[in-house]
Amino acid sequence: MHKNSSNEELQPYLNKKTVLVCKKDQDFILEGTPVVGLYFVYQGKAKIAKTGLMGKEQIIRFAKPGEIVGHRGFGYSQEYQISAKALERTVLCSFSTEVITKALLTVPSLTYDLLTFYSEELNRSETKVKKFAQMTVREKVIDALLYINRKFGQSKGLLNLQLTRKEIADFAGTTEEQVIRVLSSLKKEKLLNTEGKKIGIERVELLSKEIADHNYFIDS
Question: What pTM was estimated for this model as a whole?
Answer without folding.
Answer: 0.84
